[in-house]
Design brief:
Layout (H helix, E strand, L loop, with lengths): L2 H11 L6 E6 L3 E6 L7 H5 L6 E5 L2 E5 L4 H12 L9 H5 L5 H13 L3 H19 L8 H15 L1 H13 L3 H11 L2 H4 L8 E2 L2 E2 L10 H20 L5 H42 L1 H18 L6 H11 L6 H20 L3 H17 L3 H11 L1 H19 L24 H22 L15 E5 L4 E5 L6 H4 L5 E7 L3 E3 L4 E6 L5 E6 L4 E5 L12 E3 L6 E2 L4 E5 L1 H6 L6 E5 L7 E3 L4 E3 L4 E6 L2 H4 L2
Antiparallel strand pairs: 1-2, 2-4, 3-4, 5-6, 7-20, 8-9, 8-19, 9-17, 10-16, 11-12, 11-15, 12-13, 13-17, 14-16, 18-20
Main location: membrane
Subcellular location: Cell membrane
GO biological process, one term: trehalose transport
């Protein structure tokens, strides 16, 4: 994957960097909060190499990338001049806010998504260390064990300090002050007070609780910090505010946490853990069936972020995670459904997608390729996966199986389930989770995909000018992503007329809602993007009139868009229009580029096929 090209395409598809209020990433997705969601073009984004699919949930526009999402996010951060997900913009706060539930999900996503992979990695190390002790491979009284335990448990122990960083970024509080407050909560002398009688603070009785691995107190504390800091900065003189603001915040909020926030948060945590415990103690099959059956549905709508903190709370309170165990069934069930598709389909394309998607789900627990690429579009396999997850999850919960650490459910992290129940029950449950959807897919089938006709590429396909105007090199385009060829090779035209014509015969594969950009795939397989003007997406479609639609078949010279050059120029926008080849894996170079005055229909450039494409 070309991370820079994918990032540039995604940014263009969401309406440009100026339309992004914030963006964070989780394990597999870019999560955008957009100023105007109408400017986003999901169809165009889904056509970008490296993008699996898009979704809208929790007040966010989500772009599913897969395991390589951190690299794409890093490229987006470079383009936007920073890490836009690490702050909340005033423009976002001033915009219409989503409902309370969506805002809560967005907050949880922002706080926990940066921690997720390290949290899961540390959890897997804890599980492997626990298994090593159980099998007698390591003696728990040795210094070796102590060091390995520190490596695997340190992240969980100091979770409040780590969570303070992400909370400070989200709530726009001072990170160092947030870390100092969280450090006070896990200070050794404070930890030693847990459970001690007659603890007081200036004579006020304190119900001392453990803040090790805690979640709720630090989030509340940093949220309050953000408000107190803004108040103090507004009231204190500039000569003293930098010293006295953190000092007052530390003294007041840590004291308040010991006296009020901590005990209340502990009561909430205990209540949540008790509720989960009651469900899995008294109706375990029901709890397991709901979790195992609906988890992937929760993931699709993004609401699973509201459940992940409950798992961490449960682990803090009980030392195990009953909620997590049935999720293994949910993941393996979707993988089993994909295997059924792999066996039954006659589509070479679908088989080519199914094998890596199944491996990704089985080993890494990353189900997005399986769900969005195969099961959900085919409908029945996804439903059969839900059935398998529910049955397997019910057996796991009924067997009293829990996870002894927080991990991402996958084949590699299965050791966290060993030791809490019968191994045979666990193996039966996991086998059922895979076999049930696999068999259902084979028996009841699905509407199979028909492979597209093979594409025959010409080594030198002629692209004609879609505009009247002046042809100039891409390097003269006042937009870095086009000018440096990141989005593809081609030519730009400074138009003198307001009609855009088709540069090749083929299919219209993308029409941006604002009318400023069109994507065409030629009959020979060349994929061409025409972007009328620079940053013209900001016009919201004003001065553009599209005369075609996605899926339309066009001939070279057909009218695609009418636009008002005078009005667009008067609004302050540069009309330089790049015409680029986006599938540069098949057509990496152009030849015979035009220059100077040009009319629509005149030769613009040759799209030169790669050796592999030319040989097809």
């Amino acid at each position: 994957m070309d991370y820079g090209k994918t990032a540039a395409g995604v940014l263009a598809g969401v309406g440009g960097g100026d339309n992004v209020a914030s963006v964070v990433h989780c394990a597999t997705r870019l999560r955008f909060e957009l100023k105007d969601t109408a400017k986003a073009d999901p169809d165009a984004i889904r056509s970008i190499p490296g993008v699996i699919t898009t979704a809208e949930a929790g007040g966010q526009f989500q772009v599913v990338i897969g395991n390589e999402v951190p690299e794409v996010y890093a490229e987006i951060a470079k383009t936007t001049g920073g890490a836009p997900g690490e702050r909340r913009s005033k423009e976002r706060d001033d915009a219409a806010k989503p409902n309370v539930f969506n805002r809560f999900i967005a907050m949880i996503s922002a706080l926990f998504s940066p921690l997720l992979w390290v949290l899961a990695a540390a959890g897997l190390l804890k599980a492997l260390l626990s298994a090593s002790v159980a099998f007698g491979w390591i003696d728990s009284t040795t210094t070796t064990y102590a060091m390995l335990n520190a490596i695997s448990d340190g992240f969980f122990y100091f979770l409040p300090v780590i969570l303070a960083v992400t909370a400070a970024k989200y709530f726009e509080a001072n990170q160092m002050t947030s870390m100092a407050m969280a450090a006070a909560l896990v200070y050794p002398a404070i930890v030693a007070l847990d459970g001690q009688p007659d603890v007081s603070f200036f004579g006020i009785p304190v119900v001392m609780v453990s803040y090790v691995s805690s979640v709720i107190p630090v989030i509340i504390m940093v949220w309050l910090q953000s408000h107190v800091e803004r108040f103090l900065y507004a009231k204190l003189h500039s000569s003293i505010r930098r010293l006295f603001t953190p000092m007052i915040v530390l003294l007041i909020l840590v004291s308040l946490t010991f006296l009020v926030i901590g005990p209340l948060a502990n009561a909430v945590s205990s209540g949540l853990a008790a509720g989960i415990g009651w469900l899995f103690d008294y109706v375990p099959a029901l709890g397991g069936a709901i979790t195992g059956g609906l988890w992937q549905v929760f993931v699709i709508f993004g609401v699973h972020w509201g459940i992940i903190p409950l798992m961490i709370v449960e682990f803090q309170e009980n030392g195990n995670v009953a909620l997590l165990a049935p999720i293994f069934a949910a993941v393996l069930a979707q993988a089993g459904a994909v295997l059924g598709v792999l066996i039954r389909t006659r589509s070479k394309q679908l088989r080519a997608l199914s094998a890596p998607a199944a491996i990704s789900a089985f080993l890494a627990g990353v189900t997005e390729p399986a769900i969005y690429g195969i099961n959900l579009p085919l409908k029945r396999p996804f439903a059969f996966g839900i059935v398998g997850g529910a049955v397997g999850g019910a057996i796991i919960a009924a067997g009293g199986i829990t996870a002894n650490a927080f991990v991402l459910a996958s084949g590699l992290s299965l050791p966290v389930l060993f030791g809490s129940g019968s191994v045979w029950v666990l193996l039966i449950a996991l086998a059922v989770s895979i076999v049930v959807p696999f068999v259902l897919v084979l028996v009841f089938g699905f509407t199979d995909r028909v492979d597209d006709a093979p594409v025959t590429a010409s080594p030198d396909l002629q692209v004609v000018s879609p505009l009247d105007g002046t042809a100039v090199p891409l390097s003269q385009v006042p937009d870095a992503a086009f000018a440096d060829g990141s989005l593809g090779q081609g030519i730009a035209i400074v138009p003198t007329g307001g009609t855009l014509f088709a540069p090749v015969a083929g299919e219209v594969v993308a029409v941006f809602p604002t009318g400023h950009a069109i994507g065409i795939r030629s009959e020979d397989g060349v994929e061409i993007l025409i972007h009328i003007g620079i940053n013209t997406v900001e016009l919201g479609g004003e001065h553009f009139s599209v005369t075609t639609e996605k899926g339309a078949t066009v001939a070279a010279g057909d009218v695609l868009v009418e636009f008002d050059t005078a009005a667009i120029a008067a609004a302050g926008y540069d009309l330089t229009t790049p015409i680029i080849v986006t599938n540069d894996d098949a057509f990496p170079t152009i030849g015979s580029p035009a220059s100077g005055a040009i009319r629509h229909g005149d030769p613009l450039y040759l799209a030169i096929a790669s050796e592999a494409a030319a040989a097809r």
